[in-house]
Design a protein that fits this description.
- The complex is a heterodimer.
- By secondary structure, chain A is an all-alpha fold.
- In chain A, α1 runs antiparallel to α2.
- The longest helix of chain A is centred in the middle third of the chain and has 135 residues.
- Chain B is an all-alpha fold.
- Chain B has one domain.
- Chain B contains 7 helices and no strands.
- In chain B, α4 packs parallel to α7.
- The chains are: A mainly alpha, B mainly alpha.
- The interface between A and B is large, with 32 and 41 residues.
Chain lengths: 179, 227
């Protein structure tokens, strides 16, 4: 390359030759046409498509996120509702239980009252029979006692009669007292 | 020269076509790299200067410009070619003129012919007499200086890079084969050559970026509502 210079004046550097211009023109035109008509549209199409895809993907991700959020919100709502319902049911059950216990208690009380009353009634009936029975027996007992007393101390008439009277009076009064 | 350009164009186009035709939603490595470059041009250059709406219209032009210049510049550091497609004036000139036509057309479409000239040459908020000075300057700038500066910036960078590489590699070789004590210095020259090589890769990318950036800015200036 060093030997190539055969005394070319410096200003020639800035003056293009005709062939140079023509060749350059051809090259530039070829390059420009191919580049602008084929290479660039293709590449920019790919670039655009990619950015579109990315945008679409981002949008979709956002949508999915939104959906997930919605789902979660409704789920939480449902959960809260269910919890509330459960609490209501529990509360009601407690009230029911309390009521049932109360009822059972009342019933038991009534039952016991009834039993008590019937027992008492029976008792008094029995006492009645016992007392009537006693009445009949008391006569014989008294006559027994009287015969014994009579047999033992017939001498004191006045006194024995008084004893028998008093005995009978006592018996009478004690009977009326227990009635 | 034209062979280098032909090779570069063929290689780049074939590779890009293969990548583009195999383009998938989930990119492979090659596709990722290309997409990264496109996104870079899109994000850093186009959206920063033109905005998203206007940028969409000029994006194909600017991205093509970027890839073309980058490929041609990088040819300068590919071993075996070592000649940037942009280091002979035809290429930068043509690209600059393409840019020129693009921004002028964009401006005229937006403001009409007269409106566009007024828009570009008469910035508002300047005292009246200044316009005598300003109008020719601005006019010259729009009509000539912008594209000429684009051309020369790219061309000079690439030519300078090429010359530096040639000088340092040649220097290394010369020192190494000198047969005297100067051989000792040759590793330093070699290291410098390698350093410059790396620097040229950087410059290749940077110039592609600058060219595209300025093209975007010019379009923005032409089609904007206010200065």
């Amino acid at each position: 390359m060093l030997n190539a210079e055969a005394e070319v004046p410096g200003y020639k550097l800035l003056l293009p030759e005709t062939s140079e211009i023509i060749w350059t023109l051809i090259f530039v035109v070829i390059f420009a046409v191919v580049f602008m008509k084929f290479v660039l549209p293709r590449l920019t199409a790919v670039l655009d498509e990619r950015s579109e895809k990315i945008e679409g993907g981002l949008k979709k991700a956002e949508e999915v996120q939104q959906q997930a959020d919605d789902l979660k919100a409704t789920q939480e709502q449902e959960l809260a509702a269910a919890r509330q319902e459960a609490a209501g049911i529990r509360e009601k059950a407690r009230q029911d239980g309390a009521r049932i216990v109360e009822e059972a208690k009342a019933r038991a009380e009534a039952e016991s009252d009834r039993v008590l009353a019937s027992g008492r009634q029976q008792l008094s009936a029995e006492r009645q029979t016992a007392s009537t029975q006693l009445h009949s027996e008391v006569g014989s007992l008294a006559s027994d006692l009287a015969s014994k007393i009579v047999g033992e101390s017939l001498t004191d008439d006045e006194r024995s009669r008084r004893v028998i009277d008093r005995f009978l009076d006592d018996l009478e009064s004690s009977q009326s007292a227990t009635r | 020269m034209q062979l280098v350009r032909l090779i570069v164009i063929a290689v780049v186009l074939i590779v890009m076509c293969v990548i583009a035709s195999r383009a998938k939603l989930v990119p492979g490595r090659a596709q990722s790299i290309v997409e990264m470059l496109i996104e870079f041009v899109h994000g850093t250059i186009i959206q920063n200067t033109l905005g998203i709406r206007e940028g969409r219209r000029f994006a194909p032009f600017l991205i093509t410009l970027f890839f073309l210049i980058l490929a041609m510049n990088l040819a300068g550091v590919v071993p075996g070619m070592n000649l940037a497609g942009t280091s002979v004036i035809g290429f930068p000139l043509l690209l600059a003129l393409w840019t020129f036509v693009t921004y002028v057309v964009a401006g005229i479409k937006k403001h009409g012919l007269g409106g566009y000239l007024k828009h570009e040459t008469m910035p508002p908020g300047v005292p009246k007499p200044i316009y005598i000075l300003l109008i020719p300057i601005e006019f010259l700038q729009v009509i000539l200086i912008r594209w000429a500066s684009l051309t020369i910036r790219l061309l000079a960078n690439m030519v300078a890079g090429h010359i530096m590489l040639v000088v340092f590699i040649g220097l290394t070789q010369g020192l190494l084969l000198s047969g005297t004590w100067l051989i000792v210095a040759s590793p330093f020259a070699g290291a410098l050559a390698i350093g410059i090589y790396g620097f040229e890769i950087f410059v290749a990318a940077l110039q592609a970026f600058i060219f595209t950036m300025l093209a975007a800015v010019y379009i923005q200036m032409a089609s904007s509502d206010e200065h």
